[in-house]
Design goal:
Blueprint (H helix, E strand, L loop, with lengths): L1 E12 L4 E7 L12 E5 L10 E9 L4 E7 L3 H6 L7 E8 L11 E5 L4 H13 L4 E7 L2 E6 L3 H21 L1
Parallel strand pairs: 7-8
Antiparallel strand pairs: 1-2, 1-6, 2-5, 3-4, 3-6, 4-5, 8-9
Length: 172
């Protein structure tokens, strides 16, 4: 666990209320694994005073980057949407007990909402290890879709699906 100030590399909207934040992360700070989380301080002001927890949604030792997916829900996450490339954020991480995916059995990954990030991280790591991953997304307890594709293709597909969903909500 380290307390660091890191640099925002990207902060992009991936659906109406969800963003992906990509930031620099040196391996010497500790390598996050699926299931780890971080505590993030959005700014140095007294409000919001407390750090907020977020799960890692990815990590690359090669590019020294990490990411998280967050939903806009209050003051801290609203302020987080304003972060741009080059801005600084304070982080304490990696925290928590990560998990590993052992064995050779095919994997069914189920996620939705803010739970999507850490499961995408786990599914991506499992795919890199040569495991077959079937990904199921859910919303309000209903299975929306099921697919077995490489995770990079899955991320593009999810972005397209979120955009279609956003458009359908605007039409209503």
């Amino acid at each position: 666990m380290k307390t660091v100030t890191t640099t925002v590399l990207a902060n992009r909207k991936i659906s109406p209320d969800f963003y992906e934040l990509v930031f620099s992360w040196k391996s010497s700070w500790g390598e996050p694994v699926p299931g780890n989380f971080l505590e993030l301080k959005v700014n140095n002001n007294t409000a919001p005073m407390l750090r907020r927890p977020f799960a890692f949604s990815g990590f690359s030792a090669e590019t020294e980057t990490a990411s998280l997916i967050y939903q806009v829900r209050g003051t801290s996450t609203n302020l987080l949407t304003e972060k741009r490339e080059g801005d600084s954020i304070g982080i304490i991480a990696p925290l928590g007990n990560g998990f590993s995916i052992d064995g050779d059995s095919p994997i069914i990954a189920v996620a939705g909402g803010v739970g999507l990030g850490p499961i995408l991280f786990a599914a991506n790591e499992a795919t890199k290890a040569g495991k077959k991953v079937t990904f199921v997304t859910v919303r309000f307890g209903k299975i929306l879709m099921r697919f077995s594709v490489p995770i990079t293709v899955l991320k593009v597909f999810l972005e397209m699906w979120f955009n279609i969903f956003r458009h359908s909500q605007q039409v209503r």
